[in-house]
Amino acid sequence: RVLLLGEGNFSFAASLCGAAGTHVVATCYESEEEVCGRGRAAESIRRLREAGAEVVFSVDCTKLKDYFLPEQREFDCIYFNFPHCGRKAGVVKNRELLARFFHSSAEVLTEEGEVHVALCNGQGGTPADQPRREWHNSWQIVAVAAGAGFILSNVHPFKAETIHGYKCTGYRSQDKSFCIEGALNHIFTRSTPLPCFKPMICKIELESQKVSFQVPQVLVDKINRGFLGLNSNHPVRTVKEKLTADLSQVFPLKNIDYCLSLLHQGHLNGVCHSNIFWIVLSPEETLSTEEMSSGLANAVFFSQVDFCRDTDKNGWVNVQEGCHISKQYYLRPSLLPCAQAIIQRGAFLPGTLHVLSGPVFRKCLITPYSMPVFHEVVFVCAVNRGTENRCIQMLVNSIKTSTCSLHQTVSGFKLNVSLQEATNFETTQLNDFVAFESQLSKIQYFICMEADTSGSCEKSSCVGIIRTELVNSELVVVFASLNLDLLAMLICGISDWRMLWTSDTRFLRQFPGGELRLFKSFSLYPPFYVHDVSFWVPDGEQFDEVAFHTIARQVSSEMVVSIQLMDSFHQWETGRKSLCYRLTFQSCDKALSRQEVAEMQLLFRKEINQRLRVTLR
């Protein structure tokens, strides 16, 4: 079922009505008498009716549900070509028309339906317009559609010459056609709604005791996704399986994922306290043996809070009076300590490549490649002293062969893989992943990759590290750690790490059966919104910028893509310090409206005031 709106002479509708299996409902804003006086309109209307199409007059595009019975409101496609308020309406009035139209369309469109809007060149305000108008002088169609829950999923030229019999009528009030040279057809689809996460409780067995803890709010939608599970088609798993399959041709392989703990106890030497998700446990008496054997690292997750605890500004879980307080733990920020523990226990076979993989969790600043959670794979091999360099080269060669083969197959371009000594590596090249690993232990080598597209290499990305450790006078252990999420992004051309975690089924549909393909975004040119916040820092306290960023992640559900320090001011009379930050909000997969961002900003101000004890300005 196809609904056509704002038809001037019905020539566009007439060109569609012959399509097999398509029922056309063609409408216009004017009365039948007004329209039939237009050249060729009467002929087009006659053709439509003879073909079994419905023709409806005096239809207001902002009140569509009023014209159709409930059982008639399920349209698969809605077309609105060259909408306009009439006369010399400015961009603001036409934005308002589009906003009301999109809200109205949402009430008569199927869940998988599309809305097609054709606009003259420059009106839409997207990079597809050439030349592109200034944002304030455009119709801002993507931002307007977001207010009704739509995302721009495709845009292509509106080729009037290929539409048989079509003639653009233009302004209703004038005998003047629109200039449709360079016009674009914008195709919108429904977005998944913005998330509203309930607090989650995780129940696990630790040191032979059944315990529970509240999952940090910023991780609720990520901690139990199962991307590396046996039934997963996620590209992260495909990359891991390809790596291990190729390495098994070079080394005897042993997978030890089953014994990895989600929580660690104690303190990581060299790691900043604020980069860790700290947890406080409580005894859990009601967990059955059957429940204990399922889930991530023997964990069971519940989305209902029935425990008396809250979280302070540093992410600590506080157990209120009357509750039992157990030891303090933290969510694992890396698998390297797990690998080192295995070596210290002597639970390894010399010459065998041991494989550990799973999600790891870190508090970090908001930057394009800083991930609060990602999937890490660690390869561990104990070899005779003096042969470690040969082992490292075999490891790197196999990793290089696997990743280059995948990238070449997916994109057709070459992937350059290099091993760089840590002593020659510029600190400016360190991303958040390797910067954190550098805090854990001394690194000998960095594994770097860059895509060679049409002869010009993109910026190099560090995706892994290699280090060695002397076990005894005869054995040396080689550790290689890789960020699987970064690898999947490089291979599949995914520019935003958040897309890996989307709940939109259109993401995984692009990787049927786990087959890696070049990713095509289903949300084009998402709008961004900028808000500033300034405040006084508490006297005598060091401002915790990581906590500041973590709160921004939490209240926006990862919609904040950038935080910039705009100004720092010292008031010498009082000794107080004021900071001003600029937050940029943008979604990679969902409709994000101006109003929703304004609400996030208000909540952010409230949270930093309460949790960081800053005084808002």
TrEMBL record:
Entry keyword Phosphoprotein: no
Keywords, in A-Z order: Aminoacyl-tRNA synthetase, ATP-binding, Ligase, Mitochondrion, Nucleotide-binding, Protein biosynthesis, Transit peptide
GO biological process: rRNA base methylation; translation
Upper taxonomic lineage: Eukaryota, Metazoa, Chordata, Craniata, Vertebrata
Gene Ontology molecular function, alphabetical: ATP binding; phenylalanine-tRNA ligase activity; rRNA (uridine-N3-)-methyltransferase activity
Compartments (UniProt record): Mitochondrion matrix
This protein's record includes keyword Iron-sulfur: no
Primary location recorded for the protein, binned into one broad class: mitochondrion
PROSITE patterns in alphabetical order: FDX_ACB
Origin superkingdom: Eukaryota
InterPro entries documented for this protein: aa-tRNA-synth_II/BPL/LPL, BMT5-like, Fdx_antiC-bd, Fdx_antiC-bd_sf
Organism per entry: Himantopus himantopus (Black-winged stilt)
Entry-linked SMART domains: FDX-ACB
Enzyme Commission code(s) on record: 6.1.1.20
Catalytic activity: tRNA(Phe) + L-phenylalanine + ATP = L-phenylalanyl-tRNA(Phe) + AMP + diphosphate + H(+)
Assigned protein family: Belongs to the class-II aminoacyl-tRNA synthetase family.
Domain FDX-ACB stretches: 524-617
First-tier enzyme category under EC: ligase
Protein name: phenylalanine--tRNA ligase
CC per GO annotation: mitochondrial matrix
